[in-house]
Every structure is written in structure tokens, then in C-alpha cells.
Write a structure and sequence with these properties.
Layout (H helix, E strand, L loop, with lengths): L8 H9 L2 H13 L4 H5 L7 H13 L3 E5 L7 E5 L1 H4 L2 H14 L6 H9 L1 H14 L18
Antiparallel strand pairs: 1-2
Helix pairs in contact: 6-7
């Protein structure tokens, strides 16, 4: 186990998943239904393959995600959130609502307002889809002003 900078729970959490790439991978697993390296790579965030490989390895090592062989092609790896990973759903939901409320984003205002009013229902649905291994996207891809997907 790596020595911690402090015993503060916030500091420890940030050491594990506090960089933007890790959070975006968790987002893509949780609400976009992504499962493969290729899907993460093509998500529109322009993550370099070496960084993606590193973050997937770190998140796996931390017990946030797990790698599984694809049922139809054992050579292909699918990633999935663990129980520890799905427990980050409230954090990501609040980050989404906060970002859309306080910054200029591509998220539709009515969608954000609905999510803010229905937090418990959204979180219940995220967990239901996780248990059922349902990869149906919960949220649409948001297009930025230049037309790129985020």
C-alpha cells in the first residue's frame, strides 16, 4: 500500500480518483455505458492512449473498476465499476449539477434542473443499471460549441 500524505478522507479520495482522466473514465462507465478501451479512447475527450492505460490500471488497482474478458471474444477486455466505484455516483451527480449550474456547459438546462430535482431517482437508476449490467447510456453526449462530443 502506498503511504498517504495525510489521513484526511478527502485527500485520500483525491489521491485515488482526483485527476480529470480518472473521473471522466468513471463518468463514461457510469452514465454513458462505455466498457472498452476503444470506447474510452473515442469518447471525445482526446485522452492519450498511454494516459488511458495508466488510469485504467490505477483504477483497477484501487478497486474502483474491474477488468473482465468479453463473453463473445475472450481476447477483448471490458471494464466495469465495482461496488466501490458505483458508490461514487452521488459525487459525480453533484459534480455534474454543480458544473452545469455555475459554468457555461453543453448540458441542457432542463436536463440539469430535472436531475437536481430528482437526485434520488437518478441515483437509484444508475445503481439499477449497474446491477443489471445495462450499458444503455443514462445521459446523452454533450456537444461543445465546436461540435466535439464531451
Amino acid at each position: 500500500m502506498t503511504p498517504r500524505r495525510s489521513g484526511c478522507p478527502v485527500s485520500i479520495g483525491l489521491e485515488i480518483f482526483g485527476d480529470k482522466w480518472s473521473l471522466l473514465i468513471i463518468r463514461d462507465l457510469m452514465v454513458r455505458g462505455y466498457r472498452t478501451f476503444k470506447q474510452f479512447q473515442q469518447s471525445g475527450e482526446h485522452i492519450a492512449t498511454n494516459i488511458l492505460s495508466d488510469r485504467l490500471e490505477r483504477l483497477t488497482g484501487a478497486g474502483i473498476i474491474q477488468a473482465e474478458a468479453d463473453e463473445s471474444d475472450q481476447r477483448r477486455i471490458n471494464y466495469r465499476l465495482t461496488e466501490k466505484g458505483i458508490d461514487l455516483a452521488p459525487v459525480l451527480l453533484e459534480l455534474l449539477i454543480w458544473g452545469a449550474t455555475h459554468e457555461n456547459t453543453a448540458a441542457p438546462c432542463n436536463l440539469v434542473k430535472t436531475m437536481a430535482k430528482n437526485r434520488d431517482e437518478i441515483l437509484t437508476e444508475v445503481r439499477r443499471r449497474w446491477r443489471a449490467r445495462d450499458a444503455t447510456p443514462l445521459l446523452p453526449d454533450f456537444k461543445n460549441k465546436k461540435g466535439a462530443t464531451n
